Every structure is written in C-alpha cells, then in structure tokens.
Structure to design on (475 residues):
C-alpha cells in the first residue's frame, strides 16, 4: 500500500507537470505582450520646458495633446468648394492620396526636423453653411449638479452660442437647509420629469418648443432639428424624441423618448400635464425620470411619442468609430464624455462653414477614408475590403443593434485599420486647423494579438512616435 501510494503521487505529479507544460506551450502561441509590459510606455515628456519652437508648430506641445517626444508630422491644405446641390451623405471620391510621407519633428528640441514646404490645396465639394436663424422660441432644460454642468459648458456654448435659445439649468447640489436636501433628492430620483413645471414656468408666449436634455446631450446644430419640428403644430400637444438604440433598454423602459437624446415638448402639452404632476410623481414602480414622463403623458393625455430620426441616446460603450464613420448625420449625440470619449465641440467646428459636411466622408486613393471632423483611416486591405454603405459594429455588444443601426458590418481587426482621430479644431486667422493623431498605443499589441520577440517589442515602444496630420481649411 505505501509503495502504491507513492507511485500514485508520482503519477499525479508527472501528470500535473505535463498539464502545466502543455499549458505554457499552448500559451506561448497566444502571448502578445512582453512580461512586465506596463513598464514599457511611450515617451511623452513635459514639453513646457523645451527650447522655443517654430510658432507654426508650437501648439503641438500643448499638454492636452499629450504627444510623444518625436512625432511624424504632415500638413495638408483643403480648399472647400460650396455646392448647394450636394448630398453630404454620399461618399466623395478623390483619386490622389491624402496621407504622404511625413517629417520627423523633435518637439523637445526646438522642433528640429521640420522644414517649411508648399501646401498644394486639395479641392473638396461641400454643402453650404446652415442659414443663420433666431432660435429664441426654444427653451432647453437640464437638471444636474454644478460640477457636471461646468464640465460641459464649452459643449453647451458650442450649440447654444449665438442662437438666442435659452437654457434653464436646475442645479441639484444639496444646500445647507433640510428643504434643499428634499429638493435634491427629488431631482435625483425623478430626473427629467421634475423639470417639467420649471419649463412651463419659464416658457414665454414666444416659446414654441421646450426640450429636456442631459448635461451630456449635444446637438451638432439646431437648424436641422428646427426644420423637422417645423412640420409639427407647436400649438397642439406634441411629444417628440428618440428611442434608445439598445433593444434591451427599449424593452425595459418601453416606447418613450430617452432624455439623453433630447425630448421636445410643446407648451400645449406642458399645460395639459401641469394639473397632474403631483399625481404622476407618486406613481409606483416607475423610478426613472424619462419613464415617469412617458407614464404621465400616456395616462393623462392622448398624446403619443413621435420619433425623430437622428436623435441618438447612444446607449453603447467602447469604440464608437463605426457609428461616427458611418456617414449618417446625427441630430444629437450623448454619452460622449462617459460611455465613450469624443471631443464633440471640436468635431463640429467645421460645420460652421459647411453645415452638414460634419462627418461627411471622402475617399482618397485606394485605401483612405476621411470622415470630416472625426477621423482619417487607412485600410491596409484597400477600400474594396469594406462596404461603406454599412455601419461597422465597432462597439461592445454590437451584434444586438441591427434593429436600430442596420445595415451593419462586423467589427474590423484594428490592425487592418490605421486611424488618425481628431483631437483639436480651431481658427487660425482665416483658416480652420484640424489636428488628427494616430497614437502609439494603437500600434501596441494587445494580449490577444501575437508579436515577435517580446524583448524587442518592449524596447521599441519607447522609440515609437505619434503621427500627426493637420488639415488646413482655406476659408
């Protein structure tokens, strides 16, 4: 018995060794990152202490850009040609390449490596700017805390500035007195619904539309929205909004306007709801503000939701490039600072000069797509490898979104898609400068991607360079 026991232990030990050995042998084919990979990071120094740089490039040292010590830089000039008959939803084609060989510029060494060169303009056909209009008949309402409101001020300014539309902000930060605690709790629990009476109170005889939004609701422009709402009679009760793209969210909350996408209510509907607000607030099993609003409208009035196509709740997270690069013009955007990151106020800057050219797509050569205001993408397998008529399901769980986002195509292997994303857009004199960056991180293999020599890969990361493409719009 003892010898048999020892023999059994040896067999178990040998078996365990074989299993462990096989595990590591199999793992070797899947290891993508060098051990202690977190120690290898791109070289992003503090450029504030660097020697003076050529003024033309000095903005590239901004801390908000966070560029590597050395970059690959190139500049392309664009001459827009206004075409009032142009359909901005179609893809414009240009036979010449957009991406060329760049210059290696040392941002920490007086921008050495840069030489001034001619910038032959590329002609692009774009639609005209939106007409300048007075939107003083719009009243927007948002309930949020002061910190989140401050975080979104530049975005609010982007779509509200110079429109004469009004914004009613109900600040939900708790005060010192007990009554403020009750008020804060009410707005936290009831959300959008709690602001209905405030909208009615501050509406004027000139107000045609009130709107309920989140602090991260963003409208690229009020013009197309006003054109759609103009088809409704604002003197009658009207409830206009957008559904969530997420089927599970619609199944759970029902057929209603989702506040992040923007909900538009006529003053006539507000007046009809006013006598019932207290009763609606006591409704059980409806904790969410959007749901309370829907429940009150459906139970106390005959009004039903009218869906406005293009209002986006964007209840999806992760890589949203497929949505933004689809060529579909959104009426609203949401979750741009939480579920995904997008500098929306900078993205839409170009639309001041060419309206619906925001997210308009242009192909260059045989492999590049420029989505205006969002990205420049180089496809290693060429343009023939993708169907630009379909939206790439790039975000998490995209397979369940066909019902709202179709036609769709599968997520691409990121190694077949080299992306330069917009990080900034600003006026420089009479020109608009857009800055697109391909980050080193996008080239670093992930844990499910194979690499060659792990040690060489680790050393190479410190030497890798961000790539910058500047587009100068000659306006």
């Amino acid at each position: 018995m003892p010898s048999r026991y020892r023999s059994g232990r040896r067999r178990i030990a040998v078996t365990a060794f074989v299993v462990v050995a096989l595990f590591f042998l199999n793992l070797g084919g899947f290891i993508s990152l060098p051990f202690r990979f977190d120690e290898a990071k791109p070289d992003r120094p503090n450029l504030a202490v660097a020697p003076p740089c050529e003024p033309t490039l000095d903005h590239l040292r901004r801390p908000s850009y966070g560029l590597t010590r050395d970059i690959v830089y190139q500049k392309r000039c664009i001459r827009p040609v206004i075409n009032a008959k142009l359909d901005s939803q179609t893809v414009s084609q240009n036979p010449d390449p957009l991406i060329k060989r760049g210059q290696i510029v040392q941002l920490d060494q007086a921008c050495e490596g840069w030489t001034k060169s001619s910038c032959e303009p590329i002609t692009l056909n774009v639609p005209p700017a939106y007409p300048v209009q007075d939107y003083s008949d719009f009243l927007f309402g948002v309930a949020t805390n002061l910190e989140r409101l401050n975080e979104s001020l530049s975005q609010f300014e982007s779509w509200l500035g110079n429109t004469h539309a009004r914004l009613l902000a109900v600040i939900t930060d708790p005060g010192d007195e007990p009554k403020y605690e009750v008020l804060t709790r009410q707005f936290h629990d009831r959300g959008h619904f709690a602001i209905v009476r405030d909208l009615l109170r501050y509406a004027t005889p000139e107000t045609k539309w009130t709107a309920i939004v989140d602090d991260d609701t963003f409208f690229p422009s009020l013009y197309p929205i006003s054109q759609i709402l103009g088809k409704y009679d604002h003197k009658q009760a009207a409830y206009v909004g957008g559904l969530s793209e997420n089927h599970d969210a619609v199944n759970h909350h029902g057929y209603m306007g989702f506040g992040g996408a923007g909900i538009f209510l006529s003053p006539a509907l507000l007046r009809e709801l006013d006598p019932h607000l207290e009763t609606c607030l006591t409704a059980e099993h409806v904790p969410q503000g959007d749901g309370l609003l829907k429940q009150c409208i459906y139970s106390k009035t005959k009004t039903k939701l009218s869906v406005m196509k293009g209002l986006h709740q964007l209840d999806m997270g992760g890589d949203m490039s497929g949505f933004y690069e689809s060529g579909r013009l959104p009426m609203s955007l949401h979750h741009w600072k939480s579920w995904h990151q997008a500098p929306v106020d900078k993205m839409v800057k170009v639309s001041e000069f060419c309206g619906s050219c925001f997210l308009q797509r242009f192909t260059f050569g045989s492999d590049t797509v420029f989505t205006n205001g969002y990205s420049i993408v180089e496809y290693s397998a060429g343009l023939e490898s993708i169907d630009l008529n379909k939206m790439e399901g790039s975000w998490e769980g995209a397979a369940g979104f066909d019902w709202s986002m179709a036609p769709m195509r599968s997520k691409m292997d990121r190694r077949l898609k080299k992306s330069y994303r917009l990080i900034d857009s600003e006026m420089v004199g009479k020109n608009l400068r857009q800055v697109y960056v391909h980050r080193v991180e996008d080239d670093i293999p992930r844990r499910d991607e194979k690499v060659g020599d792990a040690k060489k890969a680790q050393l190479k990361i410190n030497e890798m360079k961000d790539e910058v493409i500047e587009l100068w719009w000659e306006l």
